[in-house]
Amino acid sequence: MGMDGAMVQMVSHGLISGALFLCVGVLYDRMHTRQIADYGGVVNTMPVFAGFMVLFALANTGLPGTSGFVGEFLVILASFKANFWYAALAALTLILAAGYTLWLVKRVVFGPVGNERVAKLKDLNGREFLILGALAAVVLLV
């Protein structure tokens, strides 16, 4: 069960991480800054993008119903059978990962508009929507 979970987790992590990097790339392409403080309120100007970013961030944290949950659940379950303390440590890392991922999403996607450049952002174009939509479908269907 642990090996099956590890294989699912590797594929899932590759898809979800790739999607999150694509989301960051979309923002960087429009803003040309890497400073989190320069963002904020992206949901107000890019609602479709924000939906995808939140979906992938939640999948990254292992939200049930996403491929991120399946792999993590199987690995943790197998870990509990092998050693309680290793499983507890693995579960703690999941909590930490959820914390920093949600911290990032809160500051970039939600809240008041960070600056005038964020207020002028355009939402996803057709190509970006198609790619992120395909990745979202796989993440939700696996």
UniProtKB/TrEMBL annotation:
Keywords: Membrane, Transmembrane, Transmembrane helix. Residues 1-93 form the NADH:quinone oxidoreductase/Mrp antiporter transmembrane domain. InterPro entries: NADH_UbQ_OxRdtase, ND/Mrp_TM. GO terms for molecular function: NADH dehydrogenase (ubiquinone) activity; NADH dehydrogenase activity; ubiquinone binding. One of its GO terms (biological process) is ATP synthesis coupled electron transport. The chain crosses the membrane at residues 6-28, 40-63, 83-103, 124-141. Pfam families: Proton_antipo_M. This is NADH dehydrogenase subunit M. It comes from mine drainage metagenome. The lineage of its organism: unclassified sequences, metagenomes, ecological metagenomes.
